[in-house]
Design goal:
Elements: H1 3-32, E1 40-41, H2 43-71, H3 74-99, H4 106-125, H5 136-159, H6 174-201, H7 204-225, E2 233-234, H8 236-295, H9 300-328, H10 334-345, E3 352-357, H11 365-386, E4 390-398, E5 401-408, H12 422-433, E6 437-442, E7 448-453
Parallel strand pairs: 3-4
Antiparallel strand pairs: 1-2, 4-5, 5-7, 6-7
Helix pairs in contact: 1-7, 2-3, 2-8, 3-4, 3-5, 4-5, 4-6, 6-7, 7-8, 8-9, 9-10, 9-11, 10-11, 11-12
């Protein structure tokens, strides 16, 4: 275990112990001093707290769902489903009845508690699952959970007046104490699970989820010892619950930011690796091959000539790669990079190239490097195969669509009779990688025109 990982976990553990000690002492103070166990009748504040909690739970569900779309982990699937159920049950059973001007009846009051407990079944299970699932799994899980929540509501509604009354002046129903105890146990299970997961994986989200579960645990304990039987009152548990949602929201936001950033870094690394493999590596391999041939006694004069040619091509390809990568990184504009490249291509006077770039065209970073390479590959084909004197490169807009075209006045070819070479295959593959459309028009004696229509 790395030293910094150990320090990171120990800092979290020390914070948890301190937090549990403070919350435990506070709980003991309120339990042993009956005169401190107060509820405040503030229906408007109660509505505000419920609304904020529902909004926070919904946002956490969305953020976890986005991370699931990026990484596909079942952990995020269960988190998204659980917090969505928590948000939906709060809105349906605690907010909408009040907004409609109706009092919260027994079925709604009990459904809100059952829904909260049901949501934590998913959340507490999340740290113990492993593996990944497909994109449809999240939709299926959400549908299953909402159907389960609807079934609970229908059962409670059919029970009606037979449900135990939540009377602030009466005894606390045993069923309520049991439900709140189950909720506290689920909070404790989530705390242990996410703490264990943080110890094993050192993922930042697990730390925040464990802290949020800690606050939720003590909120549930406050509800057990001082249950809020009046649906328009607020207590300490409500504020702890709201604070827990705030921590969870911060953690989920940080996690989705890291996930998207990590995916972008991975894609950029893969793109750089492909650039090196497709270009520079091929020429360096040729240099190595010819050097080996010299060592093995090959005729010096033709071998050295080929070695110089490969080295020059490798040097030129390194310049192209630097231009392409600096364009994607934002260090150089695509316009400047293309014009620099065309200076290299036309330096020997064998080909004249006109460039027209519409300044209104905006390209994403992944599109910039691929467009640069598509133009590079297209002009390379013109030089090698077209026997052309002039070519035109255009990046513009047509009927609201962005397009890239490379045209030449060369010999052309019959596309049906001639198989596509590796250059055209590369262009097609690069076009597909940025979700564009590729077309090629060529006729013998009339030149060739390739066009790429970029994604909407």
């Amino acid at each position: 275990m790395r030293h910094d990982d150990r320090d990171d976990f120990q800092a979290w553990l020390a914070g948890e112990i301190l937090l549990i000690g403070l919350l435990g002492a506070s709980l003991a103070l309120f339990v042993t001093n009956r005169h401190l166990q107060t509820e405040v009748y503030l229906p408007n504040l109660r509505l505000v707290l419920q609304t904020v909690a529902a909004f926070a739970a919904g946002m956490i569900a969305v953020l976890a769902g986005v991370r699931y779309a990026v990484e596909g982990r079942r952990l995020d699937l269960l988190l998204s489903t659980g917090f969505l159920v928590a948000s939906a049950s709060t809105i349906a059973f605690s907010i909408l009845p009040v907004l409609n001007g109706h009092p919260i009846h027994r079925p709604e009051a009990w459904a809100a508690i059952v829904g909260r407990t049901f949501s934590w079944v998913f959340i507490a299970t999340a740290p113990f699952v492993r593996g990944r699932s497909g994109p449809r799994a999240l939709a299926n899980a959400i549908v299953f959970a909402l159907i389960g929540l609807l079934a609970v509501w229908l059962v409670l509604r059919s029970a009606g007046s037979s449900l135990p009354a939540l009377d602030p002046h009466g005894e606390t129903p045993f069923a309520l104490t049991s439900l709140l105890s189950a909720l506290a146990l689920l909070n404790l299970l989530a705390l242990v699970g996410f703490g264990k997961r943080f110890f094993e994986r050192r993922e930042d989200l697990d730390r925040w989820l464990a802290l949020g579960a800690t606050l939720m645990l003590f909120a549930s304990l406050h509800y057990i010892f001082t249950p809020v039987l009046a649906t328009s009152s607020v207590s300490r548990g409500d504020f702890l619950r709201l604070l827990a949602y705030g921590l969870l929201l911060v953690g989920a936001w940080r996690a989705i930011s890291f996930a998207v950033f990590g995916r972008a870094v991975a894609e950029e690394r893969a793109r750089v690796a492909r650039e090196i493999h497709d270009g520079l590596a091929q020429y360096l391999f040729a240099v190595s091959t010819h050097a080996t041939m010299l060592e093995q006694g090959a005729p010096p004069e033709p071998t050295i000539a080929k070695l110089k040619e490969a080295a020059t091509a490798a040097q030129q390809e390194a310049r192209y790669a630097i231009l392409a990568l600096s364009t994607a990184a934002g260090n150089a504009t695509l316009d400047a990079a293309l014009r620099r490249y065309i200076e290299f291509v036309t330096a020997d006077g064998q080909l004249e190239v006109d460039v027209e770039i519409d300044p209104a065209v905006r390209l994403a970073p992944d599109e910039q490097i691929e467009v640069f390479r598509i133009v590079q590959e297209g002009l390379a084909n013109v030089r090698k195969h077209a026997n052309a004197r002039r070519a035109e490169v255009e990046i513009g807009l047509r009927a609201g669509e962005r397009f890239v075209s490379v045209r030449d006045d060369g010999a052309g070819f019959d596309g049906q009779a001639t198989a596509a070479g590796q250059g055209l295959k590369n262009i097609r593959a690069r076009t597909e990688s940025i979700e564009g459309g590729f077309s090629l028009t060529s006729r013998p004696g009339l030149g060739t025109a390739l066009e790429v229509v970029l994604r909407a």
